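Suppose you are handed a protein chain with no further information: no name, no annotation, nothing but its sequence. What can you learn? This example shows the usual starting point.
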Amino acid sequence: MKKIEAIVRKSRFEEVREALHEADIDFLSWWEVKGQGTAKQGLIFRGIAYDVNSVARIFISFVVRDINFEKSVNAILKAAYTGESGDGRIFVTQIEQSIRIRTGDKGDDSLYDIK
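A reasonable first move is to predict its three-dimensional structure. Written in structure tokens, the prediction is:
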């Protein structure tokens, strides 16, 4: 199992969420976050330019079985891509164990209902 965390543009979040749904990833969490990187955003209000150091992004987190890993990452890469600086990052972590609290299911069985 792998934990995938991604930071993407707010403007691309709906596309990323839809792409993950099409890749059979329906269980994920996300947060609105601010951070600072090489991409800067500027704001012009009434003719005055303001430097806004924090950039608004969406932080996405979910755990997948190893068999769904590649298609999940590819879905994010394709949907979040604009070709400009600030498209985001994807982080991958190995998960040792997962346990469903309600049933006690462990491993892959704890992630999704068996059909």
